[in-house]
Amino acid sequence: MASPTLVTPTSKLKSLVPIKATKTTTSTVSAAASTTSVSQARRREFLSIAAATLSSPAWLFPLTPAALAASDEEYVKETEEVIQKVKSTINMDKNDPNVANAVAELRETSNSWVAKYRREKNLLARVSFRDIYSAINAVSGHYVSFGPTAPIPAKRKARILEEVETAEKNLLRGR
Fold first, then answer.
1. How far apart are CA 99 and CA 116, in angstroms?
2. What is the residue-wise DSSP string for 57-121?
3. CB-count exposure of residue 133 (10 Å: 0-12, 13-18, 19+)
4. pTM for this one?
5. What is the mean predicted confidence (pLDDT) over 90-106?
6. Is the pLDDT of residue 67 over 50?
7. Which residues contact residue 14 at a Cβ distance below 8 angstroms, ignoring those fewer than 6 apart?
8. Is 167 helix (H, G, I), strand (E, B) or coil?
9. With contact defined as beta carbons under 8 Å apart, do 109 and 85 qualify?
10. For residues 136 and 86, is the Cβ–Cβ distance under 8 A?
């Protein structure tokens, strides 16, 4: 027994009543078509500007000699500050009450120096960078392992001071 709502092979299909387009629908469709063409034109314009900008020589060579000189002067200044802090911290007396503060200040300064200049490809090849980086690593490693009040052994201290001195000389030579 078939229900009257089910479509069965014997039932006759009724055709659907066509929907008549109203004026608001037509204007919406034409507005959507014009919006699409405007957005496509804007997209093309944006892509052409982006392609022209990215293929310009300014992107290929972003650093000017003036920018390199300014960063070089900044590197020299900040490296000299780190060298002075390393020297003064290492040469402090172990009974000095300010040793812990000086070590904390040295750690902060050296961490910011390393974080700033470790990523600079043009500085990685410099002898002064390698020497001061090695000295900072030795000093920081000592204080992390033995504490901020532990004196640096004589051999390690001599090696650190030698690296700092060579870094300072090479820095003055522009290396």
1. 26
2. HHHHS---HHHHHHHHHHHHHHHHHHHHHHHHHHTS-TT-TTHHHHHHHHHHHHHHHHHHHTT-H
3. buried
4. 0.57
5. 86
6. no
7. none
8. helix
9. yes
10. yes
Residues 6 or more apart in contact with residue 163 via CB below 8 angstroms: 131, 132, 134, 135, 138
Which span out of 6-15, 64-73, 109-118 was modeled with the highest average pLDDT? 109-118
Write out pLDDT tens, residues 102-134: 888 989 999 898 888 888 777 777 888 888 889
Q: Tokens representing 20? A: 């008549």
**142 residue type, one letter:** H
CA distances from 13 to 17, 25, 169 (A): 12, 29, 98
Question: Which DSSP category does 10 fall into?
Answer: T
